[in-house]
Design a protein that fits this description.
The protein is mainly alpha-helical and about 230 residues long. It is built from eleven helices and no strands. The longest helix has 27 residues, at about 150-175.
Length: about 230
């Protein structure tokens, strides 16, 4: 299966999925509470192994063709063990994407030895975001595609975007208070537009493999952000 069709749409009609992997009686949370799996080192290790296996299966097979049985087999656990930690294929996919979200949040947080100039800090944050996106480009492509066929994943996708926009809007407000950004900009509207530009560009460049010169692309994105915000060094 080629990179351009990671969700496995060629293998099944849109919206069709294995009902066994999407719904199971009971909840994983209840089972973890019953057996104490979520609070033990062994339980945390097993969950981490399942998440890594799920990531590899999703990247290899796409979302539609991925099977819980394959995830459990790759993780080296019994099929039933999967349901101690996750209720469904959908839930483990959300957990995998939550790890990616956390990687992005960590990447764009400024390190202790951060640049002193506001434009330099912006440039570093954008570069770190793009580097994480590249490392997860297969999953990011899946995320966008699955969000169009699964309403719950679609809502999770929107929640992730809103959180990203809110973080950027907060940063714009701080810059405005310091007199470093255009005071007439509405922070949230500006943040939503800039996040859309960055993530859509990353999608086409890094996930869909549209060719761009890497250094030129990164410098151009920073210039566009700085110009849009009226940043002053």
């Amino acid at each position: 299966m080629g990179l351009k069709d990671p969700a496995g749409f060629s293998a099944a009609p849109l919206g069709v999925a294995d009902p066994v992997t999407l719904t199971q009686p009971g909840t994983a949370a209840a089972r973890r509470a019953q057996y104490g799996e979520g609070s033990t080192d062994r339980g945390r290790r097993t969950r981490a192994v399942l998440l890594e296996a799920a990531r590899r299966v999703f990247e290899r097979d796409g979302y539609v063709d991925a099977r819980v049985a394959d995830i459990a087999r790759l993780a080296g656990v019994a099929h039933g063990t999967f349901y101690t930690y996750f209720d469904s294929k959908r839930e483990v996919f959300r957990a995998v994407m939550a790890e990616v979200r956390d990687q992005i949040a960590e990447a764009i947080a400024m390190p202790a030895a951060r640049p002193t100039g506001v434009i330099e800090r912006l440039d570093l944050a954008n570069r770190r975001f793009l580097d994480v996106y590249r490392g997860n480009s297969r999953l990011m492509l899946l995320f966008e595609q699955v969000a169009t066929i699964d309403p719950e994943i679609g809502e999770y996708r929107q929640c992730s975007r809103r959180a990203h926009v809110d973080r950027i809007a907060g940063g714009i407000r701080r810059l405005q208070r310091r007199g470093l950004a255009d005071p007439e900009l509405d922070p949230r509207t500006a943040a939503a537009a800039l996040v859309s530009m960055l993530t859509n560009f990353a999608y086409h460049w890094l996930a869909m493999e549209e060719p761009f010169d890497e250094e030129l692309a990164k410098r151009t994105l920073t210039r566009l952000w700085a110009s849009a915000l009226g940043l002053r060094s």
